[in-house]
Amino acid sequence: MTVDSLVIRDEWPADADDVENILQAAFADHPHSQQTEHLIVRRLREAGELVLPQVAVLDGTIVGHATFSAVQLSPQHEGWYGLGPVAVAPAFQGHRIGSALIDGGLRALKAMGAAGCVVLGEPQFYRRLGFERGLGVTFDGAPPEYFLAQAFRGTVPSAAVSYHPAFFGAD
Ligand SMILES: CC(C)(COP(=O)(O)OP(=O)(O)OC[C@H]1O[C@@H](n2cnc3c(N)ncnc32)[C@H](O)[C@@H]1OP(=O)(O)O)[C@@H](O)C(=O)NCCC(=O)NCCS
């Protein structure tokens, strides 16, 4: 398969159904998923809390999605965001589409003036994209080795991270 014509662009309103389908398909067999990622994105969208949602488009078809949302840090630090969920349609995984989506999203986040970004996920994958573990931010209930961060300016603060309530099904 060639992905030479891959385009990463901002999500448009008309993309919402395709995005949900990709999230459902990508997480269907994921061992740590409760298969609610499409609902998380839907709730974030309805709450106006999706930040820089990105889609990967191959020959006119959406094959991947990544988004950010604002996170709260305690003690308070402004300008921090969480990456996720990230999904690539199963048939297209392993072709650097996920990496391209995240890379494009992180560039846009930096350009927006964000202070930094956190992510909960596989360290082997996210370390390639500039995230490091053990930097001082924590997320209650997450094993430290799976909670990673990167600062775009300054350093990563020592703080506890909270995600938007949409992640947990309570608006
Ligand atoms: C995780 C995901 C978004 C990655 O997208 P992708 O396009 O398949 O990934 P890439 O091709 O950019 O991956 C680059 C590298 O990371 C590796 N990688 C991808 N996912 C990985 C994972 N979960 N754990 C460890 N390594 C991983 C790939 O094997 C590849 O390594 P290689 O270059 O040595 O072959 C995609 O596989 C997916 O949708 N998975 C199901 C949903 C999911 O787990 N989402 C992330 C949690 S929010």
Describe this structure in a few short sentences.
By secondary structure, the chain is α+β, with helices and mostly antiparallel strands.
Descriptive labels:
171 residues, alpha+beta, Aminopeptidase, 7-stranded mixed sheet, 3-stranded mixed sheet, 30% strand, Acyl_CoA_acyltransferase, GCN5-related N-acetyltransferase, acyltransferase activity, transferring groups other than amino-acyl groups
Reading off the top of the CATH hierarchy, the class is best stated as Alpha Beta
Strand order of the largest sheet: 1-2-3-5-6-9-7
Architecture (CATH level 2) name: 3-Layer(aba) Sandwich
Give helix % range: 10-25%
Largest sheet: 7 strands, mixed
Number of strands: 10
Query: N-to-C SSE series?
Result: EHHEEEEHEHEEEE
Radius of gyration: 15 Å
The total domain count is 1
The CATH topology is given as Aminopeptidase
Estimate the strand proportion.
25-35%
Mean pLDDT: 95
Description of the structure:
With 171 residues, the protein is α+β, with helices and mostly antiparallel strands. It is built from four helices and ten strands; from the N terminus they run E-H-H-E-E-E-E-H-E-H-E-E-E-E. It has one domain: Gcn5-related N-acetyltransferase (GNAT) (Aminopeptidase), CATH 3.40.630.30. A seven-stranded mixed beta sheet has the order 1-2-3-5-6-9-7, with helices on both faces. The radius of gyration is 15 Å and the shape is globular. The protein binds coenzyme A.
